[in-house]
């Protein structure tokens, strides 16, 4: 309980605490500006609990008497619904609402004042109730409380009045009755039927949420029945204060008559918070958010369940960004970062508004739905796959394959029911073909191998191979799978010109959470790139410069954003520089740099200034012929591609008009540059050993995955393979 509401006044009040009203109060929803009509035996106009909040339109429907009736029934009902927050007595469910008291008891029908039994013994005619309902609607009552009933049915006149009130947008709450019956009375049942969804029949529960013995049950009519606290309610008033007898006891009261105003007060809270709601919609919300009691689902004892105001103020049904139509569940992942973004999401804040099925706007911060990329496990990728390599070459052509060597039938082959020879083809993990078309022109094709590898091969570049520390060339910061690639190189004098292209898909860098599709899965989006590169050798120095355009169908440098944002993808221009210098016999120095510039494609919720810059670099030193003629020892220090600056400017809903049901927008900045910076160092040796090929490595990664607080990744690896 929030401290500002944990008062003696609140603790004396049975209902607000039990039905979680303070959660709505804390957000400023107290019933202010909402009129609750109480059609009953009148009210004590001098009671300070209603000071300043008793409607001037309060009346005796017969026009011949004052507002105060001969018993306390109407007064007590009004107290439960709307007793003021004045540090004395009790506190009503909607303590800042306006009470329209309509005295409707038949003149001369009341038995008199009885504090010990405050349930009304007065008589009410259908005509008086019908006239009172019409009067309440005419005086702008949003909620009408009728804690009355009887064994018989209702007249056509009353049916019409109920129907007109619901059509006008009012909610009507009527008591179920206190006969302890398993079925509703004809009065309550016909009353609800006339409302066609805009009437709630109120049953009573005790402080343990158990149906009261005296309360009528819904029986075969659970659809419009809702239970609330109506048993042992504190306390009877006299002269504007809680009545205490000579022995120091206060009188409690019970009845479905007092469960009804608990519900009416809750409805007033909703009417203030969401003024566009009709009474029928408020009833639906209270039913859908009710605490399920008794048999699961609707039942003949608790009907739709027990009033739960906190749940009623939570989104119901499909949610989306305010003003948008694409579903965005609050449990969904709204964005998944890429490896280049590291820990950028850990300090993000994206306040915005979402709306639910009833076009109710709720403030939320989507930061909790952002997921950073999983830290790449480079060691597993380097040695965790079992494969074999096949290659062949002539003076004009070469071909190479990487094949799954596990011996197991791959899932793709099994799913397609391929024959054994076709299944063998399905084990091909990657393939590359290079052709010498003429002395000055070469052509390369790749299957599940990126264009960068093809280009390096056609240029004749040789770089040391590392297990962990990545080179700058070809770094995209994206988890991607290449389908096909092609490269064409032309020798132009001393220069080589290479053009290349590849197609593939980005793979989400962490599992997705979705209310429907993609639960626990990774999404794939189309990816394409085109590149042009120049290379030349200057004595002992070979160098290459490249320009690559990469287009992503729906992702942003590998990051995937929820469809609700309506983003249309991005384009990145990469500038590359790569060089190798033969320092002396057996020694070679290499360096690489990549600079990226990412622009997002135009989208409705994207504001200007949404762009990124990124960079990667590597520096390595290699010695050949260390222990044998053809072995290699190499050292590399590198930084994988990392977003340097930039982010998204999202134009998101920040206000909402219930008159137009349209949001207002403001720009929220989502920074995509991480605080962490991965630096990798690796020392590796490769050569022949025991008749096979061996590779050994020791490495360290500082702030792996560009996560500032991630522990260092320190390790060693050894791999040996031999053909049989």
Account of the 3D structure:
With 724 residues, the protein is α+β, with helices and mostly antiparallel strands. It folds into two domains: 310 residues, Peptidase S8/S53 domain (Rossmann fold), CATH 3.40.50.200; 298 residues, Porin (Beta Barrel). Helix content is 16%, strand content 36%. The strands form six sheets. The chain has a 16-stranded antiparallel β-sheet that branches. A seven-stranded parallel β-sheet has the order 2-3-1-4-5-6-7, with helices on both faces. Helix 4 packs parallel to helix 5. The protein starts with 7 loop residues before the first helix and ends with a strand.
Give unreliable regions as ranges.
113-117, 409-426
Structural class by sheet pairing and helices: alpha+beta
Q: Any idea what the CATH architecture of the largest domain is?
A: 3-Layer(aba) Sandwich
According to CATH, what is the class of the largest domain?
Alpha Beta
Shape: elongated
* CATH topology assignment of the largest domain: Rossmann fold
Portion in beta strands: 35-45%
- Count of separate structural domains: 2
Specify the biggest β-sheet: 16 strands, antiparallel
Q: Helical content, roughly? A: 10-25%
Termini gap: 74 Å
Keywords:
34 strands, Rossmann fold, Porin, 724 residues, 16-stranded antiparallel beta sheet
Layout of SSEs?
Elements: H1 8-11, H2 22-26, E1 35-40, E2 59-60, H3 73-82, E3 98-103, H4 126-138, E4 143-146, H5 156-167, E5 171-175, H6 186-195, E6 199-205, E7 225-229, E8 233-234, E9 237-238, E10 241-242, E11 252-253, H7 256-273, H8 279-288, H9 309-312, E12 320-321, E13 335-336, E14 351-355, E15 361-365, E16 370-371, H10 378-383, E17 387-393, E18 397-404, H11 411-415, H12 420-426, E19 428-438, E20 441-447, H13 451-459, E21 480-492, E22 495-507, E23 524-538, E24 541-552, E25 555-556, E26 559-561, E27 570-584, E28 587-600, E29 611-624, E30 632-657, E31 662-671, E32 679-689, E33 692-702, E34 713-721
Parallel strand pairs: 1-3, 1-4, 2-3, 4-5, 5-6, 6-7, 13-16
Antiparallel strand pairs: 8-11, 9-10, 12-14, 13-26, 14-15, 17-18, 18-19, 19-20, 20-21, 21-22, 22-23, 23-24, 24-27, 25-26, 27-28, 28-29, 29-30, 30-31, 30-32, 32-33, 33-34
Helix pairs in contact: 3-7, 4-5, 5-6, 7-8
């Amino acid at each position: 309980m929030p401290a500002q509401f944990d008062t003696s006044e609140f603790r004396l009040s049975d209902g607000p605490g039990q039905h979680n009203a303070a959660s709505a109060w804390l957000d400023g929803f107290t019933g202010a500006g909402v009129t609750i009509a109480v059609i009953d035996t009148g009210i004590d106009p001098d009671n300070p609990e209603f000071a300043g909040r008793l409607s001037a339109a309060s009346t005796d429907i017969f026009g011949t008497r004052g507002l105060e009736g001969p018993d306390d029934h109407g007064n007590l009902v009004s107290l439960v619904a709307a007793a003021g927050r004045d540090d004395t007595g009790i506190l009503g469910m909607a303590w800042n609402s306006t009470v329209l008291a309509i005295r409707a008891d038949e003149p001369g029908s009341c038995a008199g004042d009885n504090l010990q039994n405050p349930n009304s013994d007065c008589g009410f005619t259908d005509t008086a109730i019908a006239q009172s309902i019409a009067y309440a609607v005419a005086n702008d009552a949003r909620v009408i409380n009728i804690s009355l009933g009887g064994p018989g049915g209702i007249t056509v006149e009353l049916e019409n009045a109920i129907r007109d009130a619901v059509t006008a947008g009012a909610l009507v709450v009527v008591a179920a009755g206190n006969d302890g019956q398993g079925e509703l009375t004809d009065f309550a049942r016909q009353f609800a039927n006339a409302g066609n969804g805009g009437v709630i029949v109120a049953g009573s529960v005790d402080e343990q949420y158990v149906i009261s013995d005296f309360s009528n049950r819904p029986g075969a009519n659970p659809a419009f029945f809702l239970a609330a606290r109506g048993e042992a309610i504190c306390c009877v008033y006299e002269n504007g204060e809680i009545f205490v007898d000579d022995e120091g006891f206060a009188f409690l009261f019970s009845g479905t008559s007092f469960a009804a105003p608990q519900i009416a007060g809750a409805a007033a809270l909703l009417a203030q918070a969401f003024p566009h709601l009709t009474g029928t919609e408020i009833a639906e919300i209270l039913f859908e958010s009710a605490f399920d009691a008794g048999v699961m689902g609707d039942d003949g004892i608790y009907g739709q369940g027990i009033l739960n105001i906190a749940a009623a103020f939570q989104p119901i049904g499909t949610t989306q960004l305010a003003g948008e139509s694409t579903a965005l569940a609050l449990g969904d992942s709204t964005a998944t970062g890429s490896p280049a973004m590291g820990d950028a999401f850990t300090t993000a804040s994206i306040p915005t508004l979402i709306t639910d099925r009833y076009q109710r706007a709720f403030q939320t911060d989507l930061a909790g739905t952002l997921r950073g990329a999983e830290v790449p496990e480079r060691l597993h990728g380097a040695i965790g796959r079992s494969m074999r390599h096949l290659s062949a070459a002539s003076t004009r052509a070469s071909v190479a394959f990487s094949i799954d060597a596990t011996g197991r039938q791959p899932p793709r082959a099994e799913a397609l029911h391929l024959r054994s020879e076709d299944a063998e083809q399905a084990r091909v993990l990657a393939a590359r073909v290079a052709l010498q078309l003429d002395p000055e022109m070469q052509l390369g094709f790749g299957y599940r191998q990126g264009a960068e590898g093809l280009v390096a091969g056609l240029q004749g570049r040789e770089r040391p191979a590392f297990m962990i520390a990545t080179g700058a060339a070809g770094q995209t910061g994206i988890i991607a799978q290449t389908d096909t690639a092609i490269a064409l190189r032309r020798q132009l004098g001393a220069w080589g010109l290479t053009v290349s292209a590849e197609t593939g898909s980005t793979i989400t860098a962490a599992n997705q959470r979705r209310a429907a599709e993609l639960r626990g899965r990774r999404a794939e989006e189309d990816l394409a790139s085109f590149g042009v590169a120049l290379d030349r050798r200057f004595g002992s120095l070979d160098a290459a410069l490249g320009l690559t355009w990469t287009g992503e169908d729906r992702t942003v440098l590998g990051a995937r954003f929820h469809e609700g944002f309506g983003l249309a993808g991005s384009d990145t221009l990469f500038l590359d520089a790569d060089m190798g210098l033969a320092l002396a016999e057996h020694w070679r120095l290499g360096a690489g740099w990549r600079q990226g510039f990412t622009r997002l494609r135009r989208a409705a919720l994207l504001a200007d200034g949404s762009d990124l810059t990124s960079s990667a670099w590597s520096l390595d030193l290699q010695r050949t012929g260390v222990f044998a003629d053809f072995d290699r020892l190499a050292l590399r220090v590198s930084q994988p591609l990392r977003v340097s600056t930039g982010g998204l400017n999202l134009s998101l809903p920040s206000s909402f008009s219930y008159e137009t049901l349209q949001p207002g927008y403001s720009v929220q900045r989502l920074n995509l540059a991480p605080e962490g910076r991965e630096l990798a160092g690796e020392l590796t040796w490769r050569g022949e050993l025991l008749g096979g090929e061996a590779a050994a490595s020791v490495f360290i990664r500082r702030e792996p995955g560009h996560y500032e607080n991630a522990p260092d990744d320190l390790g060693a690896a050894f791999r040996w393979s031999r053909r049989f």
